[in-house]
Design a protein that fits this description.
By secondary structure, the chain is of the alpha+beta class. Helix content is 47%, strand content 17%.
């Protein structure tokens, strides 16, 4: 490294660029499903949502409808499934609503209806107060949990428990104030949370089925077989269709969905998700981002070793084995690769944090006057130990691909040939 400074910095820079590109792409994908508070259990959560109905009785104008589940359907399909630790019902669609108090005019905020288990499934930080429970949900009591941002906007302070706010003109008593949630966390994010009461649970469409604005989140026990869970849900669809034979038929589309499917929006209410194209594309991108830099780095490594042919020849003449020379050269190259990898990883985190809005589409659907025009990921969403270990793995693979062949060729050169070439030069 001291004697070939130019080649050293070119090698480190090439490695840094490769790791930068790979990790920037990886973090862009990771931002769709970041496992950060309050959505720490994303890997264990699956979602039941939407229903596709094909009508069979003749007096219907429409032959099919794709709609949200109602409360009864959700219970029928997803209640008491093996391997489920906790089940939570919430509104399928986030509502924008006018919220205010006696001091300020009402402003448009994002509102979500949830049951009591929602607060057990997601790890919210309560600044003051507590969430509403089963009693408030079952009775339809007018209580609410609000975010810190809402409390400061309406009351000028976080100390808001016990105070009243008006949601669409209806008074609600505040039971708790939670730490603000990043809008990129779509399931957890809201400005205000209200109980999923009897009125919301009774909603049905004009057909008497579906359109109830209900979805269910299932927290799976560690080790639960998701495919076995889906087969049980599919079996319940079959039973459901027999019960409504002659009226309509519900088409099964692979529910419940994993969080990756939901976050990528790889499905519709009348389509079955297909995640294979996305996985294939990611694999191709990672391979390209590794192979192309590896080819260039391999060429540079070969050039570095040509200068050291006499040194390697002397080592071979004094009894160094081919394997020991290969290990030495791979180790030396790994040091350079790790140095470049560290630089690339740091640059990718800073780039993604500071400039994410220029190259990432977040698809924020929240309608709220409290959301900033530019939504930024938090550092915790970008850096994770999984990402760090992935970067180390990429460095190791890049090192093997770029250095093994040149090192193997260098170790096979005859000592006399290497020394003679150096004298001729």
């Amino acid at each position: 490294m001291r004697h070939q400074k130019m080649m050293m910095w070119v090698s480190i820079g090439g490695t840094a660029l490769a790791i930068f590109l790979v990790m920037t792409y990886f973090m862009g994908e990771q931002l769709k499903t970041p496992a950060v508070a309050p959505e720490l259990n994303r890997s264990r959560i699956v979602s039941g949502q939407n229903i596709h109905l094909l009508f069979t009785f003749p007096d219907m104008n429409s032959k099919e409808v794709s709609t949200s589940l109602d409360y009864d359907q959700t219970h029928f399909f997803y209640d008491n499934l093996d391997g489920v630790e906790l089940m939570s019902f919430m509104s399928m669609w986030e509502n924008s609503t006018e919220v205010g108090n006696s001091i300020e005019d009402a402003v448009v905020m994002s509102m979500k209806n949830t049951d009591e288990n929602y607060w057990k499934m997601y790890d919210f930080t309560f600044i003051e107060g507590k969430p509403y429970g089963s009693t408030e949900c079952e009775s339809g009591e007018k209580v609410a949990v609000i975010s810190r941002k809402v409390a400061r906007r309406l009351f000028g302070t976080e100390k808001s428990v016990g105070k009243d706010i008006k949601v669409n003109g209806i008074p609600y008593r505040i039971t708790g104030v939670v730490k603000d949630v990043n809008p990129l966390l779509e399931t957890a994010y809201s400005d205000i949370w209200l109980p999923l009461g009897p009125e919301e649970r009774a909603e049905k469409s004009g057909y008497g089925v579906g359109d109830g604005n209900i979805q269910v989140k299932l927290l799976l026990r560690p080790g639960t077989d998701v495919e076995a869970l889906k087969k049980e849900v599919e079996r319940r669809y079959t039973i459901y269709n027999k019960q409504h034979e002659g009226e309509y038929k519900a088409t099964y589309h692979g529910q419940p969905y994993t969080d990756i499917v939901v976050s990528n929006h790889d499905y519709g209410s009348n389509t079955t998700p297909d995640t294979h194209p996305g996985r294939t594309l990611n694999f191709i991108v990672y391979v390209i981002l590794l192979i192309l830099p590896a080819i260039n780095l391999s060429s540079m490594t070969g050039s570095r070793l040509k200068v050291r042919e006499s040194e390697l020849g002397v080592r071979r003449a004094f009894g160094a084995s081919k394997a020991s020379i290969v290990r030495q050269l791979l180790g030396e190259n790994l040091i350079i690769t790790l140095a470049g990898g560290a630089i690339g990883l740091i640059c990718s985190v800073l780039f993604s944090y500071l400039l994410s809005g220029l190259f990432m589409e977040f698809g924020i659907d929240h309608e709220s006057s409290l959301i900033e025009s530019t939504v930024k990921p938090e550092l915790g969403m970008l850096f994770s130990w999984e990402g760090f270990l992935l970067a180390l793995l990429f460095c190791f693979i890049l090192n093997l691909i770029s250095a093994f062949v040149p090192a193997w060729k260098a170790a096979r050169i005859q000592p006399a040939t290497a020394i003679a070439r150096n004298r001729n030069n």
